[in-house]
Input
Amino acid sequence: MNPRWRISRILGCVLSVISWLISASVAIGVEPKSEVVVLFSSDTGLPATEAIRRGFRAVLHPNDDNGPDLYEEYLDAARFPGPAHLKAMASLLEAKYSGRPVDVVVALGPTALEFARQRKEKLFPGAKLVFAGIREERAGKLILPPDSFGIVSKLDPVETLKLALDLQPKARQGFIITGSASFDKSWEAIARTKLASFEPRLSLTFLAGLPLESVLERVSALPPDSIVIHLSMFEDGTGRTFVPREVAGKIASAANAPVYSVYDTYIGQGIVGGYMDTFDAVGLAVGSLVQKILAGEQPTGGAIREAETHKFVVDWRQMARWTLNAANLPQGTEIRFREPSVWDQYKSYILAFTAVLLLQSALLILGEIRSRKLAGQLAGESKERMEMAVTSADIGLWNWNAKSDTVWTSERCKELLMLDGRASLTRDEFIDRLRAPDRPLALKRMADALASGVPCIAEYPIDLPDGSERWILSRALAKGGYKDKGPRDHILGVVMDITERKRNEDAIRESEERYRVLAETASDAIITIDRKSVILFANPAAEKIFGHAVSEMLGNDLTMLMPDYLRRVHQVSVDRYLGNGERHISWEGVELPGLHKDGSLIPLELSFAEYISDGERRFTGIVRNVSDRKRAEEELRESEERYRNVVETQSELICRYRPDTTLTFVNDAYCRYFNRSRRDLVGAKWVDLIPQPARAAVLRHMKSIIAHAHTVSYEHEVQRPDGTVGWQHWTDRVILDADGGVVEIQGVGRDLTELRQAESEAVRHRQELAHLTRVSVVGALSGALAHELNQPLTAILSNAQAAVRLISRDPVDAVEIGQILQDIVDDDKRAGHVIQHLRSLLKKDSAIRTRIQVNDLITVSLAICHSDLILKGVPVSQRLAADLPEIDADPVQIQQVLLNLIMNACEAMNGKPAKDRLLLIKSERRDALLRISVVDSGDGIPAEAIKELYQPFFTTKSLGLGLGLPICKWIIEAHGGRLAAKNNSGGGATFFIELPIAEEQRHDRPVSDSVFG
Output
């Protein structure tokens, strides 16, 4: 064998074995990927959601091949609030992840955290919990399962408001915007608590839970020097849902004051900035935390730690829009969208250009000394350097030679004017880049420049291919020959892009126009004065308030609008302020009288501020005529006095109280009822006057009143001064604030104790009457009952005598004697049942309800009447439905009604031949009711008696009292049922009893007709 071939085979085998070993080791070392489930509180459309998702994916999935398996689930709680949706999501996730070894669950946002906290062990058993997107205020209240780690965010409206005040030190009013979703309301509560310390330095107004259109309308007409803080609006007052970032853009566009926030996703939508967490950074922090946990490391900083991602962030464009001074920004503020100045961008080029110019000057001087030839050579070189310098400085050059009608342009000039690449153009071709209306003026300016030699400066718009425009500044100067000594035959020019400057100028003009429109349309007077109190500006509203024409006020002293005593102190106060800054009066919302042109005094409310214009100190004030308000206040005082007089003289109890039941007002009648002074009652909680067992029901009722903000009437027990329990009837009406919140509740009440006692007495009398009626029924059935008792007693006697005879025989027949004794027992039980039913009818106990079968009750009642029916010759037919549900009722009272109706039916058939008599008893179900029908074949009910049938003491019987049917009706209605009667088409009458089925036995059934409609 060839040795070389053998060596090759050996090497091949070795390589194969090595390859197999490597593959095996790799296969053995492969571990299953970790699994991470990420729960988002919202949907995929929220910018904050996408930012956080971007951040943690950048850490956990730097490429598609590495990292754990990520599963993302969106709870969408903002659009689908409520436990039903979350329960459905839990069922879906349980089915989806059942049996999967999830290592980490990431909950982003409060809803996701609460969802995971309650269901983690069921949905993701053994998984560690990581959470983020939780405010630090909420973190302290969390009760978390073991193996939970979180990053809390500091979304601080306090620091944001401090930033706003640093940028707007003259601001006096703040407007806080939140929506009506539960998340929005939590922000409102935090802001109300944390920002309260800024008052009275800053008057705060909360635009909370309003329709978005109302918010936009409010922020478009805010007072001067206002601050707007937009926190969150997932839902507005009409129930519409939004993406808060989009709402921020609408608010910033509509507002006439700077808007701030705590969310960095709002940056770029028109807000100035704020103290905020960057959601991308939060995502990176979450990703790093999950990465450590999956690697088996213990996270540092504790289970819950504060994110180090918050800082001040501002939008440079909005700073410029509102002319806010960047020098007032806190150190370390992140400035976004900052556009560097020409100096910042081209500092090195400008310096180089300057150096080139200096070098050029030196070369020109040197060239003048040497020779014109050398000067020409150097001039050519200088031209090249000039082109390089101006190109670096973003300036375009052009040169028109009038003799040859050629225009040379630099590359930058071609770019700015959108020229083609030709080396030279004619003048007309050069001018054609301008808009048609501007071309004649441009040609005239060039001609004038050649004729006069005066520099020409002009601004022109250029249309761009995309439909937008670019503004160009052109500076041109006509020149002659060498050393400019010959006739002017060419024009040198530079062009610059001034589009951004024009936009800023347009914005300033729009702002000034808005101010002008605001001033001219405002209902309040706006007046500006200088340091000597000379009126420099007054709007039309000032003319309406003071009666002077605007032309009469301009140039005159402000004191012309003041009464004498204010004139004497006004200028002294102004001079003192200008000298040492001491204010004589408040500058915000001060009330002073003004002087009308006709000499009358006007009540005014003034707010004014100082500003600098052209280096001069000036003062602008807003003056409001509060005559109507003063008149309304006076009328309100008079109305309140009249109200108090009326209230104090009322016999009814009147009070006002806060939502927590703390009394704020009680009238004399209220004090007399509880035998306590007004001082003792005001400040106390009226719920303490309710007996303890009744308080829970009353408090539930109170919550309903506050939640629905409506007027309601209700009754409840009270503890009377003598220790007894009384009853009161109250009608409560809620009093709302401007935002629709419940401020107080006013109640008007009256004592119902005597009425309740009378009702109880009436019930007692009815029960006694019902008992007497039962006694009378038993009396009427006495003969039949005697017969019913006589039968079993006779049978017992006969059987006992037979047993005596059998015992005397020999041998004794034990079997037959046993049968006789069993008959005696049965007859005894039969007699006992009759006596028991008789006792139940005669007993005078309180009604006791129990579950009963209607058919059993009918059977027992017919058994009691059995003998009476036979004696009266009335056959009975029964149509009792099977499997009827039970009812909750007092069996004695229902039996009393049945016996009464059966006896009435028998009496109604007395005049009929025996063959025509028939008593029919039916039972059936009608929806949630059971119906018992008692049908007779008598003469029916007279038409005139139908309406009077249930009136007490009305009867169609010669010896009747007229109380049987009224008592029956009262019994049935007390059981929640109804009693009715009708004449049969074939003769006779039918009485119907309808009683409700026991609650838990009701089932959905087709609707059927009822005699009660």
